[in-house]
Design a protein that fits this description.
Blueprint: H1 2-9, H2 16-35, E1 40-48, H3 51-67, E2 71-76, E3 89-95, H4 98-105, H5 108-120, E4 121-129
Antiparallel strand pairs: 1-3, 1-4, 2-3
Helix pairs in contact: 3-5
């Protein structure tokens, strides 16, 4: 838009090609920001009772996360717990959208892994939509 403003200040006459070019740039910038869906996040707090069984769950869940486009942003037992009494492993996984996170969660692959996880841990798990 700076280019268009400098053209206006110099009183340059724009030809049709110039106008089409600026219109295309303006529309593509506005459309890309408006049509971008917010990310989806799966957040879990897992209290493991059987580490060997949990390792089996991790071996199954990891490939499913990757297959469905998930990106592990944070994981581990070392969260600074400033409020509340919940302990365990905290995990945050980013997906392209909340819908993608739900597709992962309800997938056959993850449901098989979840069945293992349920035998060796207690879990709080939620999916939330990002702000942008």
């Amino acid at each position: 838009m700076e280019v268009l403003e400098s053209v206006r200040q110099k009183n340059k006459v724009l030809d049709t090609a110039d106008i089409e070019y600026f219109a295309l740039i303006f529309c593509s910038q506005n459309m890309s920001s408006k049509n971008k869906m917010p990310k989806g996040y799966l957040v879990a707090n897992i209290r493991v009772a059987d580490k060997e069984k949990f390792a089996e769950f991790v071996g199954m869940a990891g490939p499913a996360i990757k297959k469905y486009g998930g990106k592990v942003l944070a994981k581990g037992p070392s969260a600074d717990r400033l409020e509340g009494e919940i302990a365990g492993i905290v995990m945050m996984i980013e997906f392209e959208s909340k819908e993608a996170a739900n597709t992962f969660y309800h997938s056959e692959e993850y449901q098989a892994a979840k069945a293992i996880r349920e035998t060796c841990s207690d879990t709080d798990l939620m999916i939330i939509e990002g702000l942008e």
